[in-house]
């Protein structure tokens, strides 16, 4: 049995303080292990520690990282243009008035994530996580929804144009591809594989048994659906949704009790911090 967490030096304080633990312990809030050397909040009056996640276990801000990347790219571009075109006012104004398509894509991504977050907030009895960082990678998870009906990893896309599933033929035969606005977007569905694997790994490390199934979802916040496709539509193991169908899809038959929903949500909030 591990010793009670004790801070490194210092005198007892009236209020909990954030410090480095000298011994292994257990969080008084969620029961997670607190190994020696981690930062935690220590209450000298009760000699108990709480992990930082218990104090900051919020849902996160949808689209925050995409918005920051848009602003960073715009600032870099404007700085580069300003250095090259110093003194040429007309050219400088023209260059900074229109952003490049790749830069604007980050802004559209942030808008799409925020709009979807507003929709998901109406899902009853669900706990949400937005814009979460995946440790040791450069990737992020747009949305994680933990509801009585299941655990959903959701990628938000603000694409315009007709959503189509086409069969494309090659030398080795044909396969189905996802097109939006005439552009091949099959990679969107393929990109969900590593996101699902990351969530599965986090729950496995937390010893959830039996492990809850993880449902990958791509939600087209803005797009046109043809008569031949009605969301939800399954494509390569990924559910394609729109903003009006996703709430019905996630409000199915309950498979998780409220306390299980809370446990899963907390575990994923710890595993994937806000980006």
Task: Summarize, please.
33% of the residues lie in helices and 27% in strands. The chain has 8 helices and 14 strands.
Assign the structural class, choosing from mainly alpha, mainly beta, alpha/beta, alpha+beta, or little secondary structure.
alpha+beta
Helix content percent band = 25-40%
Give the strand line-up of the largest sheet: 6-7-8-12-14-13
Number of strands: 14
Average pLDDT metric: 85
Sheet with the most strands? 6 strands, mixed
Helix/strand order: EEEEEHHHHEEEEEEHHEEEHH
Description:
This protein has eight helices and 14 strands. The strands form four sheets. It has a six-stranded mixed beta sheet. Strand 13 (233-235) and strand 14 (238-242) form a beta hairpin. The protein folds into two domains: 1-56, no CATH class; 113-271, no CATH class. The model is unreliable at 1-7 and 9-14 (pLDDT under 50). It has helices at residues 52-55, 64-84, 89-97, 101-120, 186-190, 192-205, 246-249, 258-271, and strands spanning 17-20, 25-26, 33-34, 39-43, 48-51, 127-133, 140-147, 150-157, 163-170, 173-180, 183-184, 214-220, 233-235, 238-242. The protein is 33% helix and 27% strand. The chain has 275 residues and is of the alpha+beta class.
Ordered list of secondary-structure elements with their pairings:
Layout: E1 17-20, E2 25-26, E3 33-34, E4 39-43, E5 48-51, H1 52-55, H2 64-84, H3 89-97, H4 101-120, E6 127-133, E7 140-147, E8 150-157, E9 163-170, E10 173-180, E11 183-184, H5 186-190, H6 192-205, E12 214-220, E13 233-235, E14 238-242, H7 246-249, H8 258-271
Parallel strand pairs: 8-12, 12-14
Antiparallel strand pairs: 1-4, 2-3, 4-5, 6-7, 7-8, 9-10, 10-11, 13-14
Helix pairs in contact: 2-4
